[in-house]
From TrEMBL:
<dbReference type="InterPro" id="IPR000639">
    <property type="entry name" value="Epox_hydrolase-like"/>
</dbReference>
<dbReference type="InterPro" id="IPR029058">
    <property type="entry name" value="AB_hydrolase_fold"/>
</dbReference>
<keyword id="KW-0378">Hydrolase</keyword>
<dbReference type="InterPro" id="IPR000073">
    <property type="entry name" value="AB_hydrolase_1"/>
</dbReference>
<protein>
    <submittedName>
        <fullName>Alpha/beta hydrolase</fullName>
    </submittedName>
</protein>
<dbReference type="Pfam" id="PF00561">
    <property type="entry name" value="Abhydrolase_1"/>
</dbReference>
<feature type="domain" description="AB hydrolase-1">
    <location>
        <begin position="26"/>
        <end position="270"/>
    </location>
</feature>
<dbReference type="GO" id="GO:0016787">
    <property type="term" value="F:hydrolase activity"/>
</dbReference>
């Protein structure tokens, strides 16, 4: 599978970003979440490379992308500039944008900032920001999101995540997964190696350390005109299914596909179904 994809870099917004690409045609740009990197799309890249130029990005701070040392470098305004620069740097003026978890948060925000640059938007297990803000006013979602508040602390989260050869990383993937066999020992080791790269772990946590002061939860979300598909693993222990209810009031052309018996790691646990739902959505004119 990996023999036919290519590793490459693009420079944008003052930094160098690494990505994996396969295929030719219209651009499909994939944005991963925490604590992942481009590898979380390994089961989608070859499938969609049949019809698209698929680009699975390492977000700034992750894996082989640059890792600015300043905490202030990890704010939504910079993420949006990164994505715009990647699309244009690849020679495109628009794309199909696919995002999971933090990549989904960036994708939502990019869609509002630059709707003219998107053909379609596909979001996996990350609620619309307005719905997430609502959720954080409820005790059940505050409890599910308690790790976000822990990540605000200096150095202690890094120390704990590194403990026992990054054992908490394995617990995050296999502990949350419904289908544990979706993550092989080799997969877990690949994720550990990416997080262990110098500067990566603090950079990854800095996304959370800036989350509350960067307008992520602004009050004035309008109605998005970009056709949008949301795919949701129903057994997500970090983000409750109720956060998806009412999303259609923020998106003019909205579809949602729930996947039962599946966790937050939806595209890795149920790749065939995720790929099928994406294909059906992209086929509709």
């Amino acid at each position: 599978m990996s023999e036919s994809w290519t590793h490459a870099y693009t420079s944008t917004n003052g930094i160098k970003l690494h990505y994996v690409t396969q295929g030719e045609g219209p651009l499909m740009l994939m944005l991963h979440g925490f604590p992942e990197f481009w590898y979380s799309w390994r089961k989608q890249i070859p499938e969609f490379a049949k019809d698209y130029k698929v680009v699975a990005l390492d977000l700034r701070g992750y894996n082989d992308s640059d890792k600015p040392s300043e905490q202030s470098a990890y704010v939504m305004a910079e993420f949006i500039k990164d994505i715009k620069g990647v699309i244009q740097g690849l020679g495109y003026d628009k794309c199909v944008l696919v995002g999971h978890d933090w990549g989904g948060a960036i994708a939502w925000n990019f869609a509002y900032a630059h709707p003219e640059m998107l053909d379609r938007l596909i979001i996996l297990n990350l609620p619309h920001p307005a719905k997430f803000a609502e959720g954080l006013r409820t005790p059940q979602q505050l409890l599910r999101s308690s790790y976000i508040f822990f990540f605000q602390l200096p150095w202690l989260p890094e120390w704990l995540i590194q403990a026992g050869d990054y054992q908490p990383l394995e617990a995050a993937f296999k502990g949350m997964a419904v289908h544990k066999d979706a993550f092989t020992a080799a997969d877990i080791q690949t994720y550990k190696q990416a997080v262990a790269k110098p500067g990566a772990l603090t950079a990854m946590l800095n996304y959370y350390r800036n989350a509350f002061q960067q307008g992520l939860f602004k009050p004035d979300w309008g109605v998005l005109e970009v056709p949008t598909l949301m795919i949701w693993g129903e057994e997500d222990t970090a983000l409750g299914k109720e956060l998806t209810y009412g999303t259609e009031q923020y998106v003019r052309d909205f579809q949602i596909k729930y996947i039962p018996d599946c966790s937050h790691w939806v595209q890795q646990e149920r790749p065939q179904l995720v790929n099928q739902y994406m294909r059906e959505f992209l086929a509709k004119k």
